[in-house]
Amino acid sequence: MLEKAAYIQLYEHCRKHNILVDEQFGFRNKLATTDATFKLINEVQIAFNEKIIVGGIFCDLEKAFDSTNHDILISKLNFYGAEGKTLLWFKLYLSNRYQRVILNNNVNCQNFS
Question: pLDDT at residue 97 above 80?
Answer without folding.
Answer: no
